[in-house]
What we know:
Largest sheet: 4 strands, antiparallel
Shape: rod-shaped
Number of helices: 10
Structural class: alpha+beta
Oligomer: single chain
Amino acid sequence: MSSDPNRVKLSDEIQEARHLAAKRARKVGRAKALDRDLLWGQLRLTRRFTRLDAVMRSLGVRPSAWLRALDLHKHQALAPELNGAASGLLKASQLQADHRGDVEATPLDLFRAGLLSHDPLVRKLYEEAGITDRRIDEAEARIARQKWRRRGLFALKELGEMLLMVLVFLVVIRETLGEPRLIPSESMIPTLQVQDRVLIEKPSRLWRPYRRGDILVFYPPTSTVRQDPISWLLRSTGLSAWLYKKEDWVDVAYIKRLVALPGDTVEVQPGVGVLVNGKPLEEPYVNEVALTCTREEPNLACGAYKVPEGHYFM
Length: 314
């Protein structure tokens, strides 16, 4: 069978091993690289190419032991016959890839070609390691299984990194730019309807104080939100707004309108409405004028109420 050089190419590992083999041959004064030079180049690259390292482990090859054996013979003068030149192994590995129908000759192809080597030192190393066609086939099947496993782990790793980046991105956006919210009740009708989804912006609070009429989101003083990791994550990323249910307390924040500022006096007069500091509050955003007031605190009457410093009346 003939190999089409335009269709078959050598893997990066083999190309680099060929380059090292040529340098080694020139260093010892040989015109051409021998099989042992190519094997030496492969062994030197095991830590640079993880795929090649996996091949060596699957075959049970100990690169350090083989390198020592090859280094003992690196100055041995051998005639550069073509049948012992490394180019023969490269051609044989290309034939292996062509027979397999693959585009690229792999390190395993080069190991198969090494079984045909005429170099006595290479043949001796192969025999000592017990490398045969059967063991190479077993290693190829094992590496193929590991490749799919590695692909799965790589995909999971990529997915995990992507999810982590998305969560970090959501936290940064929520803390600096804004967050989504769900309107759960009728208290803001007609401005906000039940089940409306709104986006609360946050940058404006950095350069201007709160004003009467502003709509704010806050946690009421009496609420207790869950502090477990999942609830914290939902709040930090803003996802709680999309998963909110009224009966749980993952993120029960209020969305209310600011009526009075710290130090203001608030009062509700029947038929008149809300008074702030004795003046009627203009409220074009309500359906009807307030006629009475209700407070959850049983000891407080519904008369004039002065907002303490550091507090707001919503």
